[in-house]
Amino acid sequence: MQRQELRQGGADPGPRAGNSSQEVLAALRQGHEDHPEARADPEEPPLGRQAPGRPAAGVQRLEAFLMLHDRIVKHLGRTDRAKKRRILTGLPYESDWLETARANARINQWVVNVQHEHRRTQSDLLRLNRNVRSHLHEYDGGGIEEVLYCEWPELLMAMVKMLHLEGELEATDIENKFG
């Protein structure tokens, strides 16, 4: 599927491959919050109409990304650098993520004129995504998290899969983010 189709709200991105719990994978698979599979509970109302006390799917993706980022970068960076390297090596978009970020006007503002310049590494791909997601209130246009998801739709699922393959997914307690 072309990124342009995703940006324009075109075809459904469809299921993604993965080996973790079905509930977590179903919630992460879809980029469309109104699609029942985007929610851990298909009976949960769509984004903007969520049940009281339950976060929307976009919030769940945000929290899941930040939690997985911390596990990979911070925890494994301190405790098992070999695992961290294997996980980073297994992530997609290595050859073109920085060009994609520069080409997207909404993401580019997070790439240019920054204190620590981004390099074409998987660590910096995660750093950019983490910085944007952690500072959503500083972005005045709204919807930037969805833009990130459209540009790199496989990133979150790849993080889940690689953590699973390395035996680290269970330690994240990710199931609690999805009901």
Number of extended strands = 0
Largest sheet properties: none
Number of helices in the DSSP assignment? 9
**Rounded Rg:** 16 Å
Strand proportion: under 5%
What attributes characterize this protein structure?
mainly alpha; disordered N terminus; globular; 9 helices; about 180 residues
Short description:
The protein is mainly α and 179 residues long. Helices cover 49% and strands 0% of the residues. The longest helix is centred in the middle third of the chain and has 23 residues.
Written account of the structure:
- Helices cover 49% and strands 0% of the residues.
- It has 179 residues and is mainly alpha-helical.
- The chain has a domain of 123 residues: de novo design (two linked rop proteins) (Up-down Bundle), CATH 1.20.1440.
- Helix 3 packs across helix 4, helix 3 packs across helix 7 and helix 3 crosses helix 9.
- The two termini are 30 Å apart.
Write the SSE topology:
Elements: H1 3-7, H2 22-29, H3 57-79, H4 81-89, H5 97-103, H6 105-108, H7 122-134, H8 144-151, H9 155-165
Helix pairs in contact: 3-4, 3-7, 3-9
